[in-house]
Amino acid sequence: MTRWMPIWIMAGALCASGCNKAAETTTPSAPAELAATTSTGGESIASAPPMSATTTGSDDLSVVSNPADERMKQTAPAAFDVLFHTSAGDFTVHVTREWAPLGADRFYSLVMNKFYDGNRFFRVAPGQSGGRFVVQWGIHGEPSVNTAWQSSPQAKIDDDPVRQSNTAGSVTFATSGPNSRTTQLFINYADNSFLDGMGFSAFGEVSGDGMQTVAAINGEYGESPDQGRVQFEGNAYLNEKFPNLDYIITATVVQ
Q1: What is the spatial distance between Cα 46 and Cα 54, in angstroms, rounded to a whole number?
Q2: Buried b (16+ CB within 10 A) or exposed e, 220-255
Q3: Residues 12-21: tens digit of each pLDDT
Q4: What's the fold here for domain 20-35+68-254?
Q5: What is the pLDDT of residues 84-93, one digit of tens each?
Q6: 6: closest CA among 38, 31, 39, 35?
Q7: Is residue 16 classed as helix, strand or coil in its secondary structure?
Q8: Model pTM?
């Protein structure tokens, strides 16, 4: 699992190394993950009780720490909804499996095993003209879980062909290159269809008025959190340095 780096930008230029200066440019960087070998990186919170530095949302970490576990390889239904109960409010993601079957299956397995419970929304990237580009999450709050994913040959899944565009409200896996999706996700705040040609395959979309909640996710820290430190220090680092980050309380498959 990994931090974003500006792998591609709209004009197709390549940034070979992680670069926290991306937020200063007018062209947003593609949502991406930190290479597993890298150890350092590059509004109001709702009334839900704050989670402690060690709280990750899942009591049993044995499954989420093992991408090879069969419970992490479930086949998703043809369509399903996931309710995100967060410190910024609730929103629902509707998944259509045929859009990106491998991505939908991985997302379903992660949600069913409570991987995202306790995750912080660690990146709210600015877009053009003062708007927002994406909000990103998916690094576990417990460092040992992240270490397990970084070292497992089962962690990465193959790419899905892009069948659904990265329009506003669509949900997509971040990557660190071809066939590298693991656990990190982002929601598009705007029409980011330029990501389609880069292989980012959306598998779901925020439904109803859920984007009102997504828009309320605290973005005061922008892209400042260091994904390398999040990987190796978990929520303890984020709680100390970025205490106002919004976070997922629970993510649940609903009927």
Answers
A1: 20
A2: ebebebbbbbbbbbbbbbbbeebeebbbbbbbbeee
A3: 222 222 333 3
A4: Cyclophilin (2.40.100)
A5: 999 999 999 9
A6: 31
A7: coil
A8: 0.83
